[in-house]
Amino acid sequence: MGLSGALARLAVRATRVLVVEVPGHWATRMEVEHQLLRRGWRPAWTPADADVLAVCGAPGPELSELVDRLWEQMPGPRVRADITSPGTVGSALDAAAALLLDTPHHRTDAQERAQEPEIPEDADHGGHGGMDHGEMDHGEMDHGGHGGHGGMDMAPEGIPLAEGGEDRDGLEMDVLHLPLGPVLPFWPAGLVLRCSLQGDVVVNAEASMVDGRNDDEDDGAGAAGPSAGPAPAAVVRCDQVMALLALAGVEDAAACARRARDALLCGDEDAARDAVERLDRTVRRSWLLRSSLRGVLLLDRAGLERHGLPGHCRGDAHDRLLSRVERIRAEAGGTEPTPAEDGGVPWAVVPDLVTGLELGSVRLAVASLDLDPHPAVQAVGHG
User: Fold this and answer.
1) Residue ranges of the chain that CATH labels 3.40.50.12280
2) Does residue 217 or residue 329 have the better pLDDT?
3) What is the pLDDT of residue 233?
4) pLDDT of residue 166
5) Residues ≥6 apart with Cβ < 8 Å to 274
6) Which CATH architecture has domain 2-112?
7) For residue range 251-280, what is the model confidence (pLDDT) as tens digits?
């Protein structure tokens, strides 16, 4: 028993946490990330790798169903932490650590859980990154009463295969429908991007917000989202820069962005300025960043005018990264950007922007954009 307890406590020190952010609860998610770093815990990118499922905010019905499926996919021993505000993060993670050591609890959990999670007949089967993405339609696919997909061919276990479609030359090619989101690492919270692919190229896309509504629906709801609420603009930009750098695989630069974000969020001006200057130097000197981001979603002046985008979106993902870091430097130094410099990208244009991109660059392209708050998300503060 003594050896088992020692091994369990050692395992808890290396706890991996899968974080789900409810749209609008950016502050809780940032505090969770900060606490994980302090504890030496690490983020998990798939349910199979996770010990703890940390849900930041109170999810709506669609996201709740998805969270339940992620929970079912997690191996034991496992713990779920529902965190409603930044102020409760520490106590919630303390409780999760204690529960990870509760052997009788995990024995009961193992006995009660299903051996194979049940998948509803009308569920979407197109996961990404090992995650199931809840009940989402697939554009023109028909979800019949028997779990069918219209004329789509089905593989064993009900996994949808590609269907036929014409390419730009009039030849028939397979078209695969793949949803990205709403739960992906370094992805806008709640965004669901349904992509139609020919080969690895996006030929059509539709965007919506989980538990929200489509971009073409507008009933006057209050704006919010990852860049809403009381967070200073520099904090939001640092968070977005961190996501882009992490996706590009430049871990040292991503760590610089995270330190700058946390210092700005805590109001430590001296530490923030130092961290931002280091971030600027790291980003500009990185050959890996240039090679990873050059040519990703190239926008010229005509493209900006066509989509109604601000001037700081001009160029490719690397250009937009440098522009964003420069604006962070200005804001950290007390200089407010002009309205023209501070404009964001409307969510409604995201499908048009990613159409024609290779699937492997879609997440980098989305992370390089300064997305406006989504109208389907109500503002949530630090609460």
Assistant:
1) 2-112
2) 329
3) 80
4) 56
5) none
6) 3-Layer(aba) Sandwich (3.40)
7) 999 999 999 999 998 888 899 999 999 999
